[in-house]
Amino acid sequence: IEHPAVSPPVARTVDDLPAGRGRDALVRSCASCHELSVVLARGGTRSEWAEVTGLMVDRGAVDAEQEAMQV
Fold first, then answer.
1. 3-class SS string, the chain
2. pTM of the shown model
């Protein structure tokens, strides 16, 4: 019997994210321009987020170039 893959739970708030550098980077890099609830609701794959963070760096996101790999 095969069981469908179970997706990890989606974070709805910053408190739902595991503590650490990635969460801190997300808050610093994204919250200055975006509501975090919107960012967290977006979802996406690692490669999709790499593209999004690249666009934000190109637009001058603060500290994003240094932290993009963590987000």
1. CCCCCCCCCCCCCHHHCCCCHHHHHHHHHHCCCCCHHHHHHHCCCHHHHHHHHHHHHHCCCCCHHHHCCCC
2. 0.59
